[in-house]
TrEMBL record:
Name listed for the protein in its UniProt record: Lipoprotein
Domain of life of the native organism: Bacteria
Amino acid sequence: MSMKKEYAALGLALALAGCGGGGQAVTQPGDTTLSQDMDTAKDAVGLERLSVAEQQYRAAGQRAIARDDVTAIGDAGYNLATVQLDEGKPQDALSTVTATRSALAMRGQTGDDAGLDLVQAGALHRLGQDTAAAAAASRAAGAQDTDIVEKAQLIRGLIADDSGDQATLASVDAYFANLTGKLPDGWTADAKEIAARNLLVTGGSTQTAMQDAMQAATIRQTQVDYRDMARALGVAARAADKAGNTQAAAQLYARASQSAQQAGDKTAADLWAKQAGTATAANPFALPVAATTTKKK
């Protein structure tokens, strides 16, 4: 079965591995059912039907085990863990990563897997285990796949900012600043967010930090990457607060909270809601109180 790499925006904008197609030369007989399961799951991700994607990646993985195909097992396991992470189930993602590593090792693949390291780093960071997350992200940053390296650097920067590791944050900022050529829009958004974070911890221009964060948010809005967009709005709120513009900061935190809530990231939504204080963002699409009460019954 010929495998290829596809990339889609998920929570941390992690890479998804795809099965077959894409104009690649087929070097051995394929499994149509396995390919269809992978393709259906990928389409579901594109439509943000993550529960469907999870179900289809499980089916693909089961088919890959029946086939005893180490490459397909690795791809299906990685994709399943990535979707679980974006569903807000980091513990499930970690379990999938561990089981996938075991299945690969049983079939003779014992080397490091940077993709699994990347998902592991994201899951551990979500669980607040930043020391272990940083180690996994550093391993992923040594990958040959430039897309995995870029996302690993982003995670390293987020962890460093959250944990007060200014040296690592500065090194990640330098990594993004030294990228050359025409960059994918997603990379530009990541670079802008990291630059904004670094400016805020080094006493740089709060205006520039806010502009960078808002540019990252705008790019992610275009890419339908709402979780990361909300996070960029949170960084912009930090910049406004540091500049002394408390009203703007409160409004940005409220917007970030509301966006994260609708995107299914309740933890971040609750945090930003607290930081917004008394500021609230009206939701004209919320169910009336009476309807909500009736629905609960």
